[in-house]
Design brief:
The complex is a heterodimer of chains A (71) and B (357). Chain A is mostly helical and 71 residues long. Chain A has one domain. Chain A is elongated. By secondary structure, chain B is an all-alpha fold. Chain B has one domain: Amino acid/polyamine transporter I (Up-down Bundle), CATH 1.20.1740. The radius of gyration of chain B is 20 Å and the shape is globular. Classes of the chains: A mainly alpha (71), B mainly alpha (357). The interface between A and B is medium-sized, with 29 and 27 residues.
Amino acid sequence: MIKVLLVFVILILYDMQKFIRKKEKAMVYVLYFLFIGVSLVVGLLLAEGVRIPSPARWIESLFKMTGVLKQ
Amino acid sequence: MKKEKISGIQMFVLLSGFLFGSTIILTPTKGAKNDAWIAILIGGAGGALLLWIYTRIAMLNPSKTLVDILKDRLGKVLGTVISILYIWYFIHLASLVLRNFGEFICTTTLPETPMAVIIGLFAAVLVYVINSGIEVVGRLGELLVPVIPLVVFVICLSLITIHDFGAVLPVLGNGIEPVLMASFALVTFPFGETVAFLMLFQCLNNQEKLKKIIFASAGVFTLMGILIFFRDIFVLGSELIYRATFVPHLSTMLIPGINVEPLVNINLLISGGIKISVCIYAATNALCQLAGIDDYRKLTTAVAVFCVVLSVWIYENIVEMFAWAEKVWPLYSIPFQIIIPVLLLLLSLRKKHGVRK
């Protein structure tokens, strides 16, 4: 878990100093933290051994629900 | 956004490298068993047709990316919604290839190393490549993609003493249905995935060459696919091919006296690297276009990190990966690879003829 956190902290610090120096638009920060935030949460959960249903499962369930894929 | 330009030969190697992608280790036409060569021929023709559709869309909308075309043809709201779905699709595709790469390396070469480390290190190199620009990816392709057929020929020649030419018989022994299913699988993986190139076609310096390039790439890929199939079936037989996880790897292990296993890894590194780079480039470029950000490089790291996490999260194990790729992927891909592009082509043609009138 600490290893995952450390990797993310290094990545964020490396990118942030570039963003601040270039005075990036708010949209860059929003999208950046959206992707990094989701990745961090999922990464920490996976590191802890908690496996929430993946998008592959969601897509499969959706297809089964709509009858595109046989149950 | 700075316009990047690549030459015809660079587009050809990128497209060929993309087509080889993870097809170099996975065999989408496995289901057709010893008739896979017919499936490759039919799938190659179908794939070339699909590539032609993408090319026509690009030529009818010069200097426009997929996001521009979607917004122009479907309106701002619907165009934006479908663009977001495409961004997801490209990210998903990149993470699937990363996972294929991770599973292959973990199974065959580095069984003690955690998959997340292998995928993470590979992604870090690719982020550096993508941030260097699509021109650099093109030049890298020019340098490395010719290695792929070379390696395939070396492995074919090394296996020349081990063969059973009868393994290919009987022709159509299981009927035509498995062949057609396998052909469709080949059309969706990898031909249909080249829809990502709709974000790249506008980078080509001479748009007139586009048709030649796509047909040459489809031709080279089909021929190489047939060569690899005959090599594997003569060496392994149809039943073993059907049951094996990574067929080319198994074939190389049978070469007497020498271990050329790393050559398959090199091929996967090159072709998989190109495919992931193109997908991440397409996703970040589309995302930045939608958000009005001037340079895609600002989000490359974030998107690549997401791809790495997604690739680890998406499947629990290799069995689930193969089952999903076989059952769900072709259906899931139809709207992105066939329905929306055909709709875009029809709308673009209608607009062109409307302008003429």
